[in-house]
Amino acid sequence: MDPAPAARTYDLVIAANRLPVDRQVLPDGSTEWRRSPGGLVTAMESVMRGREGAWVGWAGEAGEAPEPFDEDGMHLVPVPLSAPEIASYYEGFSNDTLWPIYHDVIVPATFHRGWWQSYREVNERFAEAICSVASPGARVWIHDYQLQLVPALVRERRPDVRIGWFNHIPWPAVELFAQLPWREHLLRGLLGADFLGFQRTADAQNFIRACRQMLHLQTRTDTVHVASEDGAPDRVVRAASVPISIDTKGLEKLAKTPAVRARAKEIRASLGNPRTLLLGVDRLDYTKGIRHRLKAYEELLVDGAFSPPDVTFIQVATPSRERVEAYRRLRTEVETTVGRINGDHGSIGSPAIQYLHQSYPREEMAALFQAADIMLVTPLRDGMNLVAKEYVACRHDLGGTLVLSEFTGAAHELHQASMVNPHDIEGMKQAILRAVDSDPAERRRTMRALRRRVHDHDVQRWASMFLESLDIAPRRPQRRVRRELDEQTEGTA
Ligand code: GDG
C-alpha cells in the first residue's frame, strides 16, 4: 500500500458501493488489502489500464475509513459508513426498499423515512468524495441502485464533468416504481447524469416512461429532455441498454488449466459418477428462484422420473444479506426443503441434493461448471445473471445444457439456451427432462452458439461501450430535437 499525494485528481473516477479490495488479516495480526476478484474489477482494470483512475467506495467495515491509498495502479478513496448507516442506507433502503421494488416486489418492500434520510446523507458523502478526486472535465462512472442521487449531487458541485451511471439490476415497471414515496427524488438524482446505462432496452424504457409520467418531462425514443430551472441551458439525458458481461477469456483460460479439469473429474467421481449432475449457483437471494427450482426437482424425484445416485444436484447458495429478515426467512425455507428432499430421496453416501451455504474460490466454481451436465439458472427476476455466462465460458468441451429463466437479462442474449418460466413448475420439469435426454450433437451445436455470443460480448467490450456512450451522449438538445419538442409543447398547450 503506497500513501498517495493528497491533492491528486483523476480523469476517470469510478464510484460503487464497495471498493474493489478487502482487508485481510495476516497470521502475524497485521492487515493488508487484497483485490476482490469480481467481474466489475476485471472490467475496470481493462479500462483503467494506462489511464489515471480513481475508485470511490466503502471499504467494507463499519466506522472510520482508511486514508486514500494507491493499489495496483488505482487510486482508492474509502468512504466511511457507521454501523447505523450500514443498517439504514445499505441493508435498509438499498436492500429492503429498493431491491424488492426493482425486482417486481417478489417480497414486499419496507419503507422507513429514517432509511431514506440516511440514503441521502451517504449519497452526499459519495458525491463529495468523487468531486475531491475528479480532474477538470473528468469522466465519472457511478454504479448501481445504492447511488442514485449521486449524479445530480455531483453535477451541482461540478458541472464540468461527464457523468454516467450504470444500473446492474432491473428497472421496474412504472406501476411498481410508483410505490416509492421518494420516486421523484430518485428520478431527479439520476437525471443529473449525461448517460444512463441499463441491462436491457426494456429497463431503459421503463425509466424513460417514469420520467414522462411522474416528472412530466418530454422524452424521445431514448432521451429525456430536462428543462432548465435556474437559467442554465436545457439538458438531454440518454438512457439505453449496455448489457454487462464477464471476462470470458480469463475464465476460459482458468477452466482449461489441468488443475481445474482434474478437479471437475474429481467432483463427479466423489458423487459416484452420476449419469446427470445438475447445478445451481446463486447468492442466497429470493430473486434467484431457488425455491422454484427445488420444487421442480423434488417433484421429478416423487414422480420417479429419476433418482440418485443416477441423477444428483449440487446447489451452491452463497451467504448474502443475512441481517435482512426476508433473507433469513428464505434461508430457513430453502434449508427445510433441502432437508426434506434428502430425507425422502437420499440414501447413505448418495444424497439427492448437495447443498452448500458457502463461498468458493474461482477455481472451484470453474470446476463445478465443468462438472455439471445441466446448469439451472431460474431467477424470478435478474438484471443480467453472470452465472449463466460463466457456465458457457467454462464449457470449452461444448458439453452441458443451460436451462435459463426468461426473466433474466441473460435470456435476451443467450437465445439458444433452454428457456423456462420459473413460475411454471411443470414447464421447468419438462425442460430438465429434455436436457437429461438431449442429443449430444444437438447439445454441442447449442453450446457452440452460446459460446460465440459470450466471446464476442465480454466485459471489456461492455466497459468500452459504456464509456463510448458516455463520451458521445448529447448534452444539449440538438436544434432539430428542440424544435420538435417545442412543437409538441405547442400541440399540447
Ligand atoms: C448483480 C445483479 C447482474 C457466486 N458465488 C460465488 C461466486 N459467485 C459469483 C458468480 C457471479 C457473481 O458472483 C454473481 O453475479 P450474478 O450476476 O449471478 O448476480 P448478483 O450478485 O445478483 O449481481 C445481476 C450483476 O449484478 C452484474 O451486473 O448480472 O443481475 O443482480 O460472478 O460466479 N464467486 C466465487 N465464489 C462463490 O462462492 N468465487
Describe the protein.
With 493 residues, the chain is of the alpha/beta class. The protein has 17 helices and 19 strands. The protein has helices at residues 39-48, 83-102, 113-133, 150-157, 174-177, 183-190, 201-215, 248-255, 258-270, 290-303, 325-345, 362-371, 386-394, 425-436, 440-456, 459-472, 479-492, and strands spanning 2-3, 10-18, 21-25, 31-35, 53-58, 69-71, 74-78, 134-143, 162-166, 195-198, 218-219, 223-226, 235-241, 276-283, 311-318, 353-356, 374-377, 401-405, 418-420. The strands form 3 sheets. Strands 1-6-7-5-2-8-9-10-13-12-11 form an 11-stranded mixed beta sheet, sandwiched between helices. The chain has a 6-stranded parallel beta sheet with strand order 16-15-14-17-18-19, sandwiched between helices. Strand 8 (134-143), helix 4 (150-157) and strand 9 (162-166) form a beta-alpha-beta unit. Helix 3 (113-133) packs across helix 4 (150-157), helix 10 crosses helix 14 (425-436) and helix 12 packs across helix 13 (386-394). It is globular, with a radius of gyration of 24 Å. It starts with a strand and ends with a helix. Bound molecules: GDP-alpha-D-glucose. GDP-alpha-D-glucose binds next to strand 14, strand 15, helix 12 and helix 13.
Mean pLDDT: 92
Radius of gyration, in Å, reads 24 Å
Say which molecules are bound, naming each kind only once: GDP-alpha-D-glucose
Low-confidence stretches: 488-493
Q: Strands of the biggest beta sheet: in what spatial order?
A: 1-6-7-5-2-8-9-10-13-12-11
| Strand segment tally | 19
Count of DSSP-assigned helices:
17
- What coarse outline follows from CA principal-axis ratios? globular
- SS strand fraction: 15-25%
The N- to C-terminal Cα distance equals: 61 Å
Q: How would you sum up the major sheet? A: 11 strands, mixed
The secondary-structure class comes to alpha/beta
Q: Into which percent range does the helicity of residues fall?
A: 40-55%
